[in-house]
Each structure stands twice: as structure tokens, then as C-alpha cells.
Design goal:
- The protein has about 280 residues and is α/β, with parallel strands linked by helices.
- It contains 9 helices and 10 strands.
- It has a 6-stranded mixed β-sheet with strand order 4-3-5-10-6-9, sandwiched between helices.
- It is elongated and about 80 Å long.
């Protein structure tokens, strides 16, 4: 957070007056809001939660002031969505599909890293985050996750390849474009490759799903990914599915914060995707 004297200077009050106000607020709330870390003050877990509510209150106050000054009107509801920069754009498009042409609602999509997404959620800069990486943490942290979908991983490539319906050593003789090492999809692929004690012929690697699709198409190579990433190529026949990678899946999560007043529209988007997932099952 910083030093108390710097905060007092920015507020044009004395350090002792600020200390007294913090103490009075903690006594009123019966919560410890700050703790010392060296010479600086840092928000406690309770302080983080109170800070989140305070930001919501100040934002609403600014909106009210604007409306008073400019006249009340039907302002569109804006939903701020964060997406992991490396995940499938097709899946994100599927998530926001119910918002198309929805009166009174607009949305903004920001492509960010996992760390940036969680930080922005905690700071109320985003309403929901979409990721295919598991959000690890403890109960003390402010975010919560909802599994939206669990899609099988397919082996996809150019049509006309003479390969078996099940994964075997012959696949490893062909050119591959793969996710970077450390990616859960890559880990599944490496597991099955190791069974044949043979290294695949890797011509390119990337951590971006959209780029993985393009590299597979333009390098005439095989790849592994959920079919939602290449649904247009599969529909057109420029790529075909050869098999499902056994017991391999990619999970898609929605992340929100525990303390924010989440847009009702966010719950509706999540419910729509969950309902669709149930209807797709045999």
C-alpha cells in the first residue's frame, strides 16, 4: 500500500489525524484493515474486501454525480470481460453470443495474462474473467471460479493423411505444431508420445490457440486442441479430426470476485453456457 505519511500528504491532513481515522474505522467495523510490512502498511484480507466495496461505492457515486450534472438518461449497461490472451477466441465469442443485439447492454473484452486478470478483478476493473487455466489459491483470496465447459482434445490436421484411428507411433513420424511445454494440452500429448519412446517431429510451437490453428493449417501439420478452436476449418474441410486424444480435456472457467455486485447479465451468460453444455450431452 505505501507509507502513512505519503497518504496523509496526498489527503492534505496530518499523519496523526489519518491514523486516528483509520483506528476509528477499524473500531466501527470491528475489523483489522491494515498490517505493517516493514515500514509500509498493507491491507489485510478483511481490508481488501472492504476496499473492494469502497471502490464500488465511489464508482456509483461518480456515476450519480455525472447523471445529476448531465441529466438522467437510460445509459447502457457495460460489462467488462477479461480473457486469457492465449485462449480460444471462438470460445469467448460463444460466451458473449447472448449479448449480441441485446438492448441496453454493451460489453468490452480485454485480452490479458492470468495474473493481470486476477488483479483487475480484485481492483474492480473487470466484471468477469475467462480462462482455461485453473485458478489456484486459498479461501482467503477474493476470486471464485465456475467451470463453464470441459472439451475433449482432438488430433486435427490436413485431410488425406494415412493414419490409424487410434494414437500410435506412426503419428509421430508426421510434422506437428504444438502448444508450448507446460501447457496442459501439451502435457497430455507428451504423455502419449512417451509411451512409444519416440520424439515427435515438431515444426513449430506456440502458446496462442489462434496461432496454433493457423500454423497447423499453413504448415500442413497435425496439432492437438479442442475442436471449438478450429470449428470453421472443420466445417469447411480445410482441417479434419483424426481422433480424440484419450482422456485429455481442456477446461474453461469463468472467474468473478466474491465481494463485488456482479452484473445479473454475467450470471445469465454463465447459465446460458452451462445449459447449452447440458443439452449437447447425449
Amino acid at each position: 500500500m505505501g507509507k502513512l505519511n505519503q497518504a496523509a500528504e496526498s489527503l492534505f491532513i496530518s499523519q496523526s489525524a489519518l491514523s486516528m481515522q483509520i483506528k476509528q474505522l477499524e473500531e466501527r467495523l470491528q475489523l483489522k484493515l491494515f498490517e505493517k510490512k516493514g515500514r509500509a502498511l498493507q491491507l489485510t484480507d478483511s481490508g481488501q474486501r472492504v476496499f473492494g466495496y469502497a471502490q464500488d461505492i465511489f464508482q456509483k457515486g461518480e456515476e450519480l454525480e455525472f447523471q445529476i450534472e448531465n441529466g438522467f438518461s437510460d445509459q447502457p449497461q457495460i460489462i467488462r470481460i477479461g480473457m486469457l490472451s492465449t485462449m480460444s477466441r471462438n470460445f469467448v465469442e460463444q460466451f458473449v453470443a447472448p449479448l449480441r443485439n441485446r438492448e441496453g447492454v454493451k460489453y468490452m473484452i480485454h485480452a490479458v495474462s492470468q495474473t493481470q486478470m486476477l488483479t483487475a478483478l480484485n481492483e474492480r476493473q473487470l466484471d468477469v474473467g475467462l480462462t482455461n487455466l485453473d485458478v489456484k489459491g486459498t479461501d482467503k483470496q477474493l476470486w471464485q471460479t465456475q467451470l463453464l465447459d470441459r472439451q475433449p482434445i482432438s488430433v486435427v490436421g490436413p485431410k488425406g493423411l494415412d493414419v490409424a484411428d487410434e494414437f500410435d507411433a506412426s503419428y509421430l513420424d508426421l510434422p506437428w505444431v504444438l502448444p508450448l511445454e507446460g501447457n496442459p494440452i501439451r502435457a497430455s500429448f507428451d504423455h502419449y508420445s512417451a509411451m512409444y519412446q519416440k520424439a515427435p517431429s515438431v515444426v513449430a510451437q506456440t502458446d496462442d490457440m489462434a496461432m496454433l490453428r493457423l500454423l497447423a493449417r499453413d504448415n500442413n501439420a497435425l496439432t492437438v486442441l479442442p475442436e471449438v478452436v478450429v470449428k470453421d476449418e472443420l466445417a469447411s474441410g480445410s482441417l479434419v479430426r483424426y481422433m480424440l486424444l484419450p482422456q485429455s480435456f481442456e477446461n474453461f472457467f469463468a472467474v468473478t470476485t466474491k465481494t463485488s455486485t456482479t452484473h445479473q447479465a454475467i450470471y445469465q451468460l454463465i447459465e446460458a453456457l452451462l445449459t447449452q453444455g447440458k443439452s449437447d450431452k447425449p
